[in-house]
Amino acid sequence: WIVQRIHNRDDHALAHLQLWVNSRRWHEATMSTLHELRALAPDDMSIALKELSGPQRFVKGRRGHQLDVPVTLSILETQQTLSLVALLDSGCTGSCIDETFVRTHNLPTKKLVRPIPVYNA
């Protein structure tokens, strides 16, 4: 239902999107988000809309804005395993990985249907 409404006139589609998103994520229901959604395939739009209807996700460390955790990274495509210390919730407003790290370890990448919003507590 909501996928069809996203293709309505801008003002109507935006009103539907504003009603659809989680009440604490109203600020994400913008024309920009509407245009991003319209550019997606119907199945991908459904996935993105489901994510928008859920609550915000917060990550918080115990000592300030930094949380270091030991991680074993397993690359499914290559069966490669890397042991490292990962930094979580560095105070940034998105999910990220160092590009140099990705290139150095030849990690496979793929573009997401819609960027994942990450919120700091």
- Following the backbone from N to C, one meets helices and strands in this order, namely HHHHEEEHE
Helicity, as a percent range: 25-40%
Structural class: alpha+beta
Total helix count? 5
Distance between the termini: 33 Å
Strand content: 15-25%
Which strand order does the major sheet show?
1-4
Q: Stretches where pLDDT falls below 50 for ≥5 residues? A: none
Identify the quaternary structure here.
single chain
Number of strands: 4
What gross morphology would you assign?
A: elongated
Rg, alpha carbons: 18 Å
Mean pLDDT: 82
Give an overview of the whole structure:
This protein has 121 residues and is α+β, with helices and mostly antiparallel strands. Helix content is 34%, strand content 18%. The protein has five helices and four strands. It has helices at residues 2-5, 10-20, 31-38, 42-53, 99-104, and strands at residues 58-59, 67-75, 80-88, 119-120. The strands form two sheets. It has a two-stranded parallel sheet. A two-stranded antiparallel sheet has the order 2-3. The model has no long low-confidence stretch (mean pLDDT 82).
